From TrEMBL:
Pfam families: DUF8017. InterPro entries: DUF8017. This is DUF8017 domain-containing protein. Residues 1-12 have a biased composition (Basic and acidic residues). The chain crosses the membrane at residues 67-87. It comes from Nocardia farcinica (strain IFM 10152). It comes from the Bacteria. Residues 1-47 are annotated as: Disordered. Keywords: Membrane, Transmembrane, Transmembrane helix. Residues 122-296 form the DUF8017 domain.
Length: 297
């Protein structure tokens, strides 16, 4: 999202230097040469790991969370400074995309492990497609032209120990400007039980990790799912993108929707480059968020 392609960056494997941005298929990415300094809010007491919270996804059918595997994988620069994570649930050393990309024009030569196909499920929003996160028994809808990751893949932002991510990963606008993706969405979690605080906290954390920016939140507001089972808080966190490449977005928004769970809150996240054509606006984000629902095969 808004980054300059083909700058030298360091992959998730320490000391490995690569050049470029996105590869041809989803998830083959690289990150900045300079390590990202600690971003976002302080960890809660007990040295809470944000990626551990991301593993604890909500099961709408049961009203609670469950632990799922969320292996760390390759990191990618988005939005000028953002860092995206895409993983397949394996350990970091064996993650599907832990190395790879030489440039945005060179396909990866690594052999991929077999991954699950995208699950077909009916959408509840007309003209949309369903994103299924079977590990959390949840589904939500996105516009039909979005790219939906296989259900065993995970996505998010950051470089350990400052990361945020989850499953139910979808994206839109790959290469809308050189080597950049306009929008990503995923399901994550927060240890915070207050949904307003959770929505604001995750939005601020995602903005600082993904865009290295000082974000400005808008006033949170109540939001309810279409099926009437989820009642929570919607928030938008805005900011400026530093030195965007030509044709790339000058601004961003992190949209969040937090709902109660047995342990903390479920938080849906949409990270969007804005100020460019086809950018996700608040109404579209709400339409996506309100489609969250239980999923059973």
């Amino acid at each position: 999202m808004g980054r300059v392609a083909c700058r030298e960056r360091t992959s998730v494997e320490e000391g490995t230097t690569v050049h470029g941005g996105f590869d041809r298929d989803m998830g083959d990415t690289a990150t900045r040469t300079t390590p990202i300094p600690p971003q976002g809010l302080s960890a809660p007491p007990g040295h809470h790991d944000d990626m551990a919270v991301a593993r604890e996804l909500y099961r709408p059918s049961s009203g609670g969370h469950r632990w799922i595997g969320l292996g760390m994988a390759v990191l990618a620069v988005l939005g000028g400074t953002a860092v995206a994570v895409l993983a397949d649930g394996s350990d970091a050393a064996e993650a599907d995309d832990a190395t790879g990309m030489v440039s945005a024009l060179t396909p990866s030569t690594r052999t991929r492990t077999t991954e699950q196909p995208v699950i077909s499920a009916p959408a509840v929003v007309p003209g949309y497609r369903a994103v299924v996160a079977p590990d959390s028994d949840a589904a939500y809808d996105v516009p039909a032209d979005w790219t939906i990751a296989p259900p065993d893949r995970s996505g998010g932002f950051g470089k350990p120990p400052n990361t945020i991510g989850g499953k139910g990963y979808a994206s839109e606008g790959k290469d809308y400007c050189p080597g950049s993706t306009r929008t990503v969405a995923f399901l994550t979690g927060s240890p915070t039980t207050d949904t307003t605080a959770a929505a604001l906290e995750v939005g601020a954390r995602a903005a600082r990790i993904a865009y290295l920016a000082d974000p400005t939140p808008t006033a949170p507001e109540p939001l309810h799912s279409l099926d009437g089972t989820q009642h929570g808080t919607f928030a938008e966190t805005r900011g400026l993108i530093r030195d965007p490449a030509p044709g790339c977005a000058p601004t961003f928004s992190i949209y969040t929707f937090a709902t109660p769970a047995d342990t903390g809150s479920l938080v849906m996240v949409i990270a969007a480059d804005t100020g460019v054509p086809k950018a996700v606006d608040p109404d579209t984000a709400k339409r996506i968020f309100t489609s969250i629902r239980p999923y059973k095969p």
